[in-house]
Amino acid sequence: MPKTEFGIEPRAPTILSNSISQSFKSIDPAKLSSGELSCCVNTTIDTITPVSFLSIDSAAGMPPFEQVRSQLAKAIDSGILKPQDQLPTVRKLATDLGLAANTVARAYRELELIGVIETRGRNGTFVAGALSPRKAAGARLAATLAQRMRDLGMGEAEMLAIFRNEVEGRGGAGKSTLRTTS
User: Fold this and answer.
1) Which residues in the chain land under pLDDT 50?
2) For every residue of the chain, which 3-state class applies, written as one string?
3) How much is the pTM?
4) pLDDT in tens, 66-96
5) Where exactly are the structural domains of the chain?
């Protein structure tokens, strides 16, 4: 397999660790005084972790974006991915998983909305720090609600439509938009 300019063999999707090590080399005073040696610090990326835990099961009843989203969320929750770890670009991860870029973008967008990851413009997408207690409680409540709605046989679009109507308060202040039969 060809190596990159840094001598690293390309692998499955990778996450670049934010930890950078600096190692001091032995300095030859003659080289230092002659100007041959311009820097004595060798900065290298300390860790490149393959994202080998990500896989897409086309036979699963779960859409691919949801598989990516849930697997990344579990990796972050379990500590496999740590705060400040850089995620692969949308295109890179999509290519590595054989998905459309919009599929991975949707997974990233949903993780960003709940504060699990953050996009820093051209610098990339990173695992966010710990959720505030309020957001963590809200995320747990949303997960429970989503599972209960799935148990009722509802699909994603139906769940989101119901929730969106409630959040937007289309039934008036404090009133539910749901009409129940008695």
Assistant:
1) 1-49, 182
2) CCCCCCCCCCCCCEEECCCEEEEECCCCHHHHHHCCCCCCEEEEECCEEECCCCCCCCCCCCCHHHHHHHHHHHHHHHCCCCCCCEECCHHHHHHHHCCCHHHHHHHHHHHHHCCCEEECHHHCEEECCCCCHHHHHHHHHHHHHHHHHHHCCCCHHHHHHHHHHHHHCCCCCCCCCCCCCC
3) 0.52
4) 999 999 999 998 889 999 999 999 999 999 9
5) 131-182
